[in-house]
Amino acid sequence: MSVMAHARRPPVIAVAAALVVVGLIVAWMGQRADAVASGQPRVTWHLSRASNTVTVRLTPGQGPLGRQFLAHSTLTVTEPGKTHLKNPDPGGRMVRVTVPPGRQTQLTVLVKGPQPSRRTLTVTVPPALRIVAKSPARCQARLRLTAEDGEQAVVRVTVPALPEVPLYSFASPAGRAIYITVDDGWTPSPQVLDIMRRTHLPVTAFLIQQAAQRNLPYWRAFVAAGGTVGDHTVSHPDLTKLSLSQATAQWGQARQVLGRWLGRTLVMGRPPYGAFNLAVQAAAYRGGLKALVGWSATADRDGIATWNHKGLEAGEIVLLHWVPGLGQQMTKLLKAIHAKHLIPRPLTPASFAGQAPQRHSLGGD
Which residues make beta-bridge pairs with 96? Predict the structure, then answer.
């Protein structure tokens, strides 16, 4: 019995040894798996709010395999529904993506190499910060910004002055030119329209939207006869007494509506009462105008008056109104113009080339 028991011991020893070897192998494989997992390249990303750009990078994992895996890995970034890749760098381990503000953007990040992976990034960019000027003047301020996580920052902001549309009371005198303008539009004149058709007289009508609406067929005939239409606002208020947004609406609405009614793009305006300041000029710019027009002479039932109380001269902008008796006033004005050997010319923004803008109101209506 003892002999047989002694004969069985070697297999028991062999089994034990085998278990030890298996244990070592399992431990080595576990360590290897840990090393592989820790060496897997890592994906990091950063959002730059200054440029709304997401930078996605591959960085080395830990351990001896980290650098080795990174050297053989590449990175691509795509958006759902788009097949093109997003601007990878020559090394293939960094991608920059511009994301639009005000909404979420999903990016699919693919890592190719010894340890491939796939993940989705959801990036939310807040709407762009808009600063709306309430004044035409330049101003500086400090903004205190507070993030959702409570982080705060102070940003210095400079708001530039709004661009201004210049106002001219004189136009080019070249070729002994003179310019006839008629305001408002409440009482259209068939006689003036007849003169325009017979003599091709260039006339500029600065129309109030509410007035023009009452006689649209006449104003379409006026345009067809070669007349030019300018913006005299919606309802003829003193724009200097309105806010910037209210003045902008007066210019912009009249410009768009009159343009749609008459099939012309209005580029010139005349402020009611001749009253203007920086805010009125800035509102004209925001309303889409290119030039504001004053005047240097008037013609009405009392006769002709000029800015310097002398006779008409080349370059004058003459103001009349669409009122009863306008036909007779126009006839007298044309006689005075011809007596001075002046030539009526169409008024356009180009007519103000070389002329100094007006800085102060001349008054009027």
Answer: 55
Locus of tokens 């890749």: 85
Q: Specify whether the CB–CB gap between 181 and 317 falls below 8 A.
A: yes
Taking alpha carbons only, the member of 358, 219, 324 closest to residue 232 is 219
Reported pTM: 0.62
Which pair of tokens denotes residue 258?
């009159």
Is the distance from CB of 57 to CB of 45 less than 8 angstroms? yes
How many whole angstroms separate alpha carbon 327 and alpha carbon 260?
28
Encoded tokens for 302: 């009392």
For residue 113, which amino acid is it? G
Rounded to an integer, what is the distance from CA 108 to the centroid of its chain?
Answer: 32
Q: Which residues of 323-345 are buried (b: 16+ CB within 10 A; e: fewer)?
A: eeebeebbeebbebbeeeebebb
Domains and CATH numbers, the chain: 42-124 (2.60.40), 167-352 (3.20.20.370)
Q: How far is CA 209 from the centre of its chain?
A: 26
Please choose, from the candidates 287, 294, 348, the residue with its C-alpha nearest in 3D space to the C-alpha of residue 162.
287
Q: In what helix (H) or strand (E) does residue 121 lie, and over which residues does it extend?
A: strand 117-124
Q: Encode the chain (365 residues) as per-residue pLDDT tens digits.
A: 444 444 455 565 655 555 555 555 544 455 555 555 666 777 887 777 667 788 888 788 777 776 776 777 888 888 876 655 554 566 667 888 888 887 788 888 888 888 788 888 788 776 765 555 555 666 666 777 676 666 676 667 766 667 889 999 999 999 999 999 999 999 999 999 999 999 999 999 999 999 999 999 999 999 999 999 999 999 999 999 999 999 999 999 999 999 999 999 999 999 999 999 999 999 999 999 999 999 999 999 999 999 999 999 999 999 999 999 999 999 999 999 999 999 999 999 999 999 999 876 655 45
